Amino acid sequence: MLLADLLDLVLPATCAGCDEPATGPLCEPCRAALAAVRPGRTRPVPEPPGLPPVFALAAYAGSVRRMLIQYKERNRHELAPVLGGLLARVVAASVPAGAGPVTLVPVPATSAAARRRFGDHVDRLAVAAAATLRRRGAEVRVEGLLRALPKREDSTELSAAERARAAAQAFAVRGRGRPAGGAVILVDDIITTGSTLAASTARLAAAGVRVHRVAVLAATQRAA
Q1: What is an example of a Pfam family matching this protein (predicted)?
Q2: Pair 152, 166: CB distance under 8 Å
Q3: 181: which of 94, 118, 132, 162 is 20 to 30 A away, CA to CA?
Q4: Measured distance CA(196)–CA(47) in Å, rounded
Q5: Whether 29 and 98 share a structural domain
Q6: Range of 82's domain?
Q7: What gap in Å lies between CA 36 and CA 28, rounded to an integer?
């Protein structure tokens, strides 16, 4: 068997953004298109109470949507550095001026989801984003302050009000040290209704941790 055949068994030969042939996670056109995207403010409609300002890279569509599906559901973990680098751009755009050190708090996956995906996919992205930002001279750390509780219902079948109630019971705060100064950025891959992010923010606030901003890769709602 040729070396190329062996590599095809290990490394995907298609771009995660467009399914065209590629020698890495993304083809050059997709890399160029993503490099041109600028993170911006986004708001779900309606916006849940208590949701901090949210910043996203792009809409949950096109190549971004395909990349996230490949990463989460097809276990293409080689996309973590690429997506983490994109998330780093969102974090950088979201941090308030003069905020000082930055703490990234990933929204955790349930144990069942983490087992299915061979690890917590958002935590992996947060670690990659923090590494990217530190290479640029920023003072950034990742703190797993939240713990996901087992899901009682499939949220895809719930109304917006039911999703909000389920989200409020979905997380617990870990007994760790709290960030000392600086900005706390809650990070996730996608924002839909914002219920999960608002509930996470409320849980952290009850434990004395103020979330200043939210950074996500994609938004299902149109950017503001």
Answers
A1: Pribosyltran
A2: yes
A3: 132
A4: 12
A5: no
A6: 39-219
A7: 12
CA atoms of 130 and 126, how far apart (whole Å):
6
Please check whether residues 14 and 64 belong to one and the same domain: no
The three-state secondary structure class of 11 is: coil
Pair 80, 179 in one domain = yes
pLDDT in tens, the chain (224 residues): 444 444 444 555 789 999 888 888 999 999 999 999 999 999 999 899 999 999 999 999 999 999 999 998 888 889 999 999 999 999 999 998 888 899 999 999 877 877 887 778 999 999 999 999 999 999 999 999 998 887 655 555 556 666 666 666 778 888 665 676 789 999 999 999 999 999 999 999 988 999 999 999 999 964 44
| Shared-domain flag, residues 177 and 210 | yes
Q: How far apart are CA 8 and CA 22, in angstroms?
A: 11
92 is written with which tokens? 């950088």
Per-state percent for the chain, helix, strand, coil, to nearest 5: 40, 20, 40
Q: What is the CA radius of gyration of the chain?
A: 18
